[in-house]
Amino acid sequence: MKRSFILSCALGALLAIALPARSTAAPWDTKLYMTVVADQADPAAKSLLPAAGQSVSYVAYDAGYIEAGDPIGGEKPPAASTISQALRAALASQNYLPAETPAAPALLLVYHWGLLNRDSYQNRTSFKLQPNLKARIALVAPKFYAERIEQDLIDRRQPLPLHIPILDPVERDLLQLIGDNRYFVIVSAYDFTSVTKSAAKLLWRVRLSTRSPGVSMDAALPTLIQGGAPYFGRNLKDMETIRQPLAAAGAGALLPPPPEAARQIDEHYLRQLMRGERIEFSGIYPSDATAADEPTLPKIATAATSFLPPALASRIDAYQHEKAALQDAVAAKIKDRTPGADARQAIDAFNQENAGRIAALTKEREAIRDELAKLAAASTDAGASKSLNTLLQEFSADVQRMN
To answer: Cα–Cα distance between 181 and 209 in angstroms, integer?
Structure first.
């Protein structure tokens, strides 16, 4: 009984401490310690891995930014376009290419990104394993160890006498990681055809994370994506810790909008799929998830926009990604506020905190509108002129404030 009590205390202590400083990317360090958890959820995943000299097509959906657990001041997420650029480049490095033909892609990718902190409120209000703790365990622990750790923690909260197994080195390391506040990126790959039938089949999932202290989110998230690229589609028995050089500032092409083939997907089903992942990965109580948490789906690429110069099309897509990210963020800020003065105060505070991002978005909107106006004036194609005028109307809306 004495040894069980000591192990019980050890488990609690490990969850309460942070990982030693060796995992922190200090300002003078140009590399980041990151944790990788990768698994194949279905045997069919192997048949959809890029073979030598071949590629696998995909359509990608940004399920949005997550900030869960105890709030920490000063956190500034990167623009959604930064994540889009980094992910497209990482996928291309492994021969995953965006679908560009009328044929249906092989994979539907859903990705989440953000910050997962310990939730003091959840952990204080109940003796059972709360969603926040389960999310933090799953972020850094492969399935076998996640189940084992969860059972150990459940046993720890039962009346003595009880039996708690002696922890192996891997489990001890994982318990330290679970105690951290962490930046993360999670990429899930589904069989595209199964999603069109509203019966999504998960093929593989990669969870990438690092301790948040000592590095900005702007630097950490692209670095996680770059370092995690070789693990896309792989199946790891244990988690891996790697030291990855900090990624350069975002550049390159954005993930393109979904192709026409995506019209086969029921949008309500896709939103529910993405929302379910969001609840699982964030540790948010399902009862707290509201319509404000519904992801915004990008517009499907059509022939009506195919006449746009590629550079302008990419700028429009980046603009729409950033605007949607700000709208999602302000919706999350007011979801628990009382309508009226309380909600308005939260919106005003959000606009003040994000003044730089909103100003940049407004400037980009005006620049895109000028480019569209020039194209419309020079166009001799009646169909293209009509589509350009429609886009001009869309870019006439002011975004100087988020409401």
So the answer is: 10
- Distance, CA of 95 to CA of 336 (rounded, Å): 43
Write the single-letter amino acid at 42: D
Placement of tokens 């310990």 in the chain? 118
DSSP 11-51: HHHHHHSPPPGGG---TT--EEEEEEEEEESSGGGGGGSPP
Cα separation, 346 vs 333, in Å, equals 7
3-state SS class at 219 = helix
* pLDDT of 216 above 70: yes
* Residues contacting residue 237 through CB under 8 Å, at least 6 positions apart: 142, 144
| φ/ψ (deg, to 5) at 241 | -115, 125
CA distance 61 to 159: 46
CA angle 372, 377, 381 (to 5 degrees): 95
* CA–CA gap between residue 12 and residue 1 (Å, rounded): 17
As given in the structure block, the two tokens for residue 385 are 């002129």
Element (H, E) at 20: none
CA distance 187 to 113: 9
The whole-angstrom distance between residue 76's C-alpha and the CA centroid of its chain comes to 15
259-315 pLDDT tens trace: 888 989 999 899 999 999 999 999 886 554 444 456 778 777 654 455 677 677 777
CB proximity list for 119: less than 8 A, separation 6 or greater? 68, 69, 70, 130, 132, 133, 283
Question: Strands, E, within 89-180: which ranges?
Answer: 96-98, 107-116
Q: Closest by alpha carbon to 200, among 261, 263, 279, 273?
A: 273
- What one-letter code names the amino acid at 328? D
Is residue 134 within 8 Å of residue 150, measured between CB atoms?
yes
Q: Residue 102 and residue 303: Cα distance in Å, rounded?
A: 11
